[in-house]
Amino acid sequence: MIIVNSESAGAIERAAEIIRNGGMVAFPTETVYGLGADALNPSAVARIFEAKKRPSFDPLIVHLCSKEQIGEFCLRVNKTAERLIDRFFPGPLTLVLPKRRVIPDIVTAGLDTVAVRIPAHETALRLIEESGRPVAAPSANPFGYLSPTDAGDVARLLGGSIDMLLDGGKTMVGVESTVVFFEGKTPVVARHGGVTIEELRTEIGEVKVIGNSAIRPVSPGLLKRHYSPKTPIIIVRDFRGISRGKSASPGFLAFREPPEHEGGRAIEILSKTGDLKEAAVNFFSALHRLDASGVDVIYAERIPEKGLGRAIMERLRKAACR
Known about the structure:
- The protein is α/β, with parallel strands linked by helices.
- The chain is built from 10 helices and 15 strands.
């Protein structure tokens, strides 16, 4: 694997050539790092599934670089979707829309819809534009494991499987995109993410929220268990009720304040000021550090389920599912 600073001369051009030739490139977006391949090349897409050990029934998100491309790959865009595109593209929102036949079935797990988004990150947009291809890109990590928010995590998790890694530093949002699909004309949130429910409702009014474990996946991240570290996670309302003798080597994921608990081997605080945006940015990197610290259990404190707090708690519940 070649690791290149995304701002170095010729880096984007080299990565784009790899994409055109059927290879895989890990690259930063505003949400997390993605593992990208030419979405129109079934063999290249199959390499993503192989590298991640990803089940074929779990579809991928197709990343585009302009709103004009949406019509090339989506058969219909309803008026509500158009409003969301105008407001949130580029950005951390994924829309699931009827697909055109040009999109291979391996990308969509045989569904007649495709999940699309335009990332709000200069490196990602330049890579897609330079390659001249739509880029299928789930998170650059083994299937079901914690998503990577910096290049070091990608190199550690998938380094032997990737042709090139574009190092663009730490991602800006820290959690994946919000996923919206449509039941008829009704917008349905299938995954909480970087665009909040409050922002969606301000733009288009009421939206439906569905428990994503109850539906066939329409995009990544919709399974009941996901985003999981190797270390077991236990979600607690606060740290006061934890028995001191319950774990020989506990780790703690705190929202604002460090736990008043003896024997904590590793402690991560998401935001000392209680800022949910900061907490989201720090969420996956904090869990990566806790998972690597040698603790035997991670106690994770609940955080307020509003704004980006919903996205964090959704991921915590999936990570804790065993």
